[in-house]
Design brief:
Layout lengths: L1 H11 L7 E7 L2 E7 L5 H5 L4 H15 L5 E6 L1
Parallel strand pairs: 2-3
Antiparallel strand pairs: 1-2
C-alpha cells in the first residue's frame, strides 16, 4: 500500500522527492499519512477534494482484497 500511495503522489507533484508516506496502526485500522511539499498540497487534494478521494478509493479497493481497513491522511 505504501508504495502504491507513493507512486500516485509522485506522479501528481512537482517535488516528487518530498513525498513521504508513514504507516501506523490504531483502533481504526492501518493509517497511511501522506506528506508532500507545501506547494504541492493543492495538486494532491484537487478541486473539491476529488484527487484525494480518488487516491483513497484506489487504496481502499486494493486493501479490500486482504480484508483490511485502511485510512489515508494527507498533510503538508
Amino acid at each position: 500500500m505504501q508504495e502504491l500511495i507513493q507512486v500516485i503522489a509522485r506522479s501528481l507533484t512537482d517535488h516528487p522527492d518530498d513525498v513521504r508516506v508513514t504507516v501506523r496502526e490504531d483502533e481504526r485500522g492501518t493509517v497511511y499519512t501522506l506528506s508532500v511539499h507545501p506547494d504541492d498540497i493543492g495538486k494532491v487534494i484537487g478541486k473539491q477534494g476529488r484527487i484525494a478521494k480518488a487516491i483513497r478509493t484506489v487504496v481502499t479497493s486494493a486493501a479490500a482484497r486482504d480484508r483490511r481497513r485502511v485510512i489515508v491522511d494527507i498533510e503538508s
